[in-house]
TrEMBL record:
Protein name per UniProt: Sugar ABC transporter permease
Domain ABC transmembrane type-1 positions: 78-281
Keyword Transport: yes
Pfam families: BPD_transp_1
Gene Ontology CC annotation, any one: plasma membrane
Compartmental location: Cell membrane
A GO biological process held by the record: transmembrane transport
Residue intervals passing through the bilayer: 21-39, 82-101, 113-133, 145-165, 186-208, 262-282
Source species: Oceanobacillus sojae
Major subcellular site: membrane
InterPro entries, sorted: MetI-like, MetI-like_sf
Keyword Membrane (UniProt): yes
Domain of life of the native organism: Bacteria
PANTHER family tied to this protein: ABC TRANSPORTER PERMEASE PROTEIN MG189-RELATED-RELATED, POLYGALACTURONAN_RHAMNOGALACTURONAN TRANSPORT SYSTEM PERMEASE PROTEIN YTCP
Length: 296
């Protein structure tokens, strides 16, 4: 229906006007810090500390990015984060899809009991200390598995996948069963091709969640060579620990502090790049997948 044919009352127009103002403010609140960090990563340290953001091209530099790419600690952390986030996403999506589809099948024996058991774990868990002891007894401390496996499967994602599978046409499954297709054949040849929206949504949720995580690495990892990028970035931003080798061992402490701000902003931009690159490719599936369960 054409919006021009809708006669809004004065109160409706006022509410729409307020909504536009609120959305504009939200856009500014989100956009301004991002632009500030992006511009700050290209500014010379002296200009950034004394004058703030400058649009004078003579004040711009890529020295912060050069020093980050020359530093083995940050690049190793970047590669570790990609490894952890990719492995976490694969484990999470594969087992979540399998569990969600199994719980959506009408003939599954004990389905209600399983769902009740899963839902209880959403509200009650063993806590951090028992989880740490379990990871230690399994021999996963100070290994990538301590980051990838614990927490890879969440009940909320299973419920989301189950709701999506229950909304698929049952006629397709019944027709395949009449033709003699096995459960595995139905799942691989019919269900999965129709499940791209939920698969991409779960993958996006899992990747973003693991990419931004640092607490598990802080608990389970002792070897700094296994640190993810977010834990290294935390040391730079919160504890102000910029490694001397990042700016040259011969430089004075004052020089290190002078360049610290530029290195911080450059590291933030680099840490955000994978998410900004991923979202445009996932957007069309994300819009469909987030509506799963809205009507059920």
């Amino acid at each position: 229906m054409d919006n021009k044919l809708i006669n809004n009352s004065k109160s409706d127009k006022f509410i729409l006007f307020l909504n536009k103002i609120m959305l504009g403010l939200i856009v500014l609140i989100v956009t301004v810090p991002l632009l500030y960090v992006l511009l700050g990563s290209f500014l010379q340290p002296d200009v950034l500390l004394t004058k703030g953001i400058s649009f004078n091209p003579s004040h711009w530099t890529i020295d912060g990015y050069v020093r980050i790419f020359q530093d083995g600690t940050i690049m190793r952390g970047f590669l570790n984060s990609i490894l952890y986030a990719t492995g976490f996403t694969l484990v999470s999506v594969i087992f979540t899809i399998m569990a969600g589809y199994s719980l959506s099948v009408d003939g599954l024996v004990g389905k209600k009991a399983l769902m009740l058991y899963f839902i209880i774990t959403m509200f009650f868990n063993g806590g951090m200390v028992p989880t740490y002891l379990l990871v230690r007894e399994l021999g996963m401390l100070n290994t990538p598995w301590a980051i990838i496996l614990p927490g890879a499967i969440t009940v909320w994602n299973i419920i989301l996948a189950r709701t999506y599978f229950r909304g698929l046409p049952k006629g397709l499954i019944e027709a395949a069963m009449i033709d003699g297709a096995s459960d595995a054949r139905i799942f691989l040849s019919i269900i999965l091709p129709l499940s791209k929206p939920i698969i991409f949504v779960l993958a996006l949720y899992s990747f973003i969640g693991q990419w931004n995580a640092y607490f598990d690495a802080m608990i389970y990892l002792e070897d700094r060579s296994l640190y993810p990028l977010q834990l290294i970035l935390r040391d730079i931003l919160i504890q102000n620990e910029v490694q001397p080798g990042m700016i040259g061992d011969q430089m004075a402490r004052a020089e290190l502090q002078r360049l610290a701000e530029m290195i911080k902003y450059s590291a933030i931009v680099i840490a955000s790049l994978p998410l900004m690159i991923m979202y445009p490719f996932f957007q069309k599936y994300f819009e469909k997948g987030v509506m799963v369960g809205s009507l059920k």
